[in-house]
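As promised in the previous annual report, we have extended the structural survey to additional targets. Below is the entry for ATP-binding cassette domain-containing protein.
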Amino acid sequence: MGIIEARNLTKVYGRQVACREICLSVEEGQIFGLLGPNGAGKSTLVKMLLGLVHPTSGEARVAGRSSLDPRSRREVGFLPENFRFHGWLKGQELLIFHARLAGLGVEDAWRRADEVLELVGLAGDGRKLVANYSKGMQQRLGLAAALVGDPRVVFLDEPTSALDPLGRRRVREILLMLKRAGKTIFLNSHLLSEVEQVCDRVAIINRGAVVAEGRLTDLLAGP
Ligand code: ADP
Ligand code: ADP
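The corresponding structure token record, generated without further manual editing, is:
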């Protein structure tokens, strides 16, 4: 059984079928990419996996529990698309706050905040106000916030949308480092280039349905 499981997940909004009978299984330690055009249903699927949206039918599971079980949230980090922070906090303070929310004690929270700042390349910026961060720095801070609780599974929604090529490369390197540390990463993207360089497996979603799933090299080779 995968650490992330979508079992016949369907979500209907009014007459709009956002996701239709989606089945996916992601093994622990993999980087999994979900590719699809805008409106395909990617965010809805991720929200069901995160337990933020109730499926119309089917079940979402993470780390052996239903996504609707609050305990599953401890296992999960999440970087939403275009996440923005309040400017009146320092980067380090924001991460300490997130670490405390994730259940860490004060000393551990300070230590982890410094670790993840270093990991995302913001070690020298932790004492600056977030108001003075560039968009790319904010996105990396968001990644640090998703990682600060040391989750087993990390969901990243378009994690490089605000980044220049150098920033993209840095995020790629971070993802590969996390993989070496045994983390499972679920990457939502509309950019093939972003997905192809890091993902072990991908699913392609269109109009709410998974139209292909497997290793990207196999998918690109065609039937
Ligand atoms: P993606 O993330 O791939 O852009 P979404 O999951 O956001 O796709 O959307 C899939 C479809 O579901 C779209 O047609 C969108 O308009 C619709 N949708 C998403 N969320 C809602 C909502 N809260 N209410 C109504 N329709 C929604
Ligand atoms: P490298 O050899 O390139 O440093 P490793 O295989 O040692 O990579 O990966 C572990 C590194 O990743 C450590 O520096 C560790 O602090 C960092 N790391 C792993 N998982 C996380 C996580 N969830 N949050 C923050 N840092 C992490």
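Residues 6 and 24 are 5 Å apart (CA to CA). The pocket of adenosine-5'-diphosphate (ligand 2) is lined by residues 115-116, 119, 147, 150, 177-178, 180-181, 183 (CB under 6 Å). These points will be discussed at the next consortium meeting with the crystallography subgroup.
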